[in-house]
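Deliverable D4.2, example record:
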Amino acid sequence: MCRDIIVPVEAVLRTLTGRKPQAPAEHILQGARVTDVSSEGAVTRPDMTAWFADFAAEPRTGGGEGPQRNMPH
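Output generated by the structure prediction step:
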């Protein structure tokens, strides 16, 4: 059974013009490599692409918690 979860994040991915592209985050969460969906310098917070990749790689226990490392600053 698939359940939706809500996880607070420090920032969402945004292009340099301020758009919030859904596809890169969605593909990363589905397991795509960051380098395959986002170019270096294409988003305002590239550290968040790594956060989404870490989140996608962690097994879910149903609690909805994000990566156990600190949020990027």
